[in-house]
């Protein structure tokens, strides 16, 4: 997507415009400058593109500042955190915003509300105003979705309030709306978006703008959260029905406009315009040294350090490595066709394994070298890498293999926040919620078929036949774990299903050290290893040693973290903000 890259600089450098980073100081909403801007469709569009740039998500699913790195926390990888240690304090999750700043949720909502207000009051044709405002409403829903999934209900600020002093004044001491009211406002904004934006933009430079399907997909995701056990402990069927209706609407709108599963699970990241899988994305480019430069950062930080200028984050844990199914779709140890061996962990796995995990000896055509193999083994207790992977593995998903080492920091791969595969699995999950198992099977099979899993004689792609409702829910969460590995989804799935204690508590994530034996190894192994059969190497030359990555603590997630505390500093600013019941207050986030 290139829209914000082309227009943002011109926007921010124009003295006429009033919605740049100092927008929060604006007090006269009817100023002459504002009137001039919103008489001009191009300047209005540039204001909207600034809203895009402020609110589009960064790689690994981050909607906001995420001071605790929330989206990356799970059994996928390793990272120390107060959340997993169980030591979160009331002021630690600060996405709520306790200062009048442009980079917190309410600061961004204020910019959106100003835009909505000024466009509505401007002289542009009604059709044009509706289309512009609808895109801004999408991002207001996006921001409130971030807030509600963190805290439950929050104050709904829908007009640009006077910017005076501190956040409490900005909010005019508004009380929290209920969680139900917050979800309802999200749906209302997204319905407005669906009604006024196209199903597909015709101009190539509009690729990445919000479409009807984008808004419907976000509505489906939001209502799936509302139906999940975190928000729906009584399993209210009406909530599942609402989620199903929303996700079915998203599916219908997207398929009617040419969206669908990309033919390739790994190459889907590298097609930009007209990528059928890209429902909601953040665009990046490869420009360098200019104000329009906007690289995605993820590629350079994730690939090995010697293949870029940073490198080595998002390292898969042994738990993630073991999670992938076998080639027939059965879990390791459950397949009767393919035997799983820890020593030969890479053999006969779901094809998504090799497209997600880079392991010792794997062919990984980095830096344009199609024959390149990554080696992570140790000799005499020392790594052969210039900087070793802590877990023994790397993430290769969405890493552009053709980028050279020096250019890795400028990678322009777009980040796809909502893929069509998610729409399918959201639809499957909500279908299970209203007892439509056949539809769930249909979507699960579609995802597994694209992955390259064997269909089997029963055509179920490794799925168990006639699963119960509970079994189908588990199967869908498992599919999401594999399909969306390292896309910032796993933590939120475990949290909305209240499964973090069951899945993680008391455990310590694991890494692997692969050691080269001291005897029986060919003298020329180091120089000839790329030509050695990998099965022979692992069977005869390597040993695997397992290590705990969590050395300071076992994971100890606490139940109160399913709704984080409103920061005390925000409550001190606004006495009408009531703390969640799980943190000693009287506000029930389930209502």
TrEMBL record:
Residue span, SusD-like N-terminal domain: 104-221
Polar residues bias locations: 292-304
Gene Ontology terms: cellular component: cell outer membrane
Predominant subcellular localization, coarse grouping: membrane
InterPro entries the record matches: SusD-like_N, SusD_RagB_dom, TPR-like_helical_dom_sf
Record keywords, A-Z: Cell outer membrane, Membrane, Signal
PROSITE patterns found in the cross-reference section: PROKAR_LIPOPROTEIN
Chain segments carrying region Disordered: 292-313
Compartment annotation: Cell outer membrane
Record flagged with keyword Signal: yes
Limits of the RagB/SusD domain: 276-583
Pfam hit, one: SusD-like_3
Similarity comment: Belongs to the SusD family.
Name the UniProt record assigns to this protein: RagB/SusD family nutrient uptake outer membrane protein
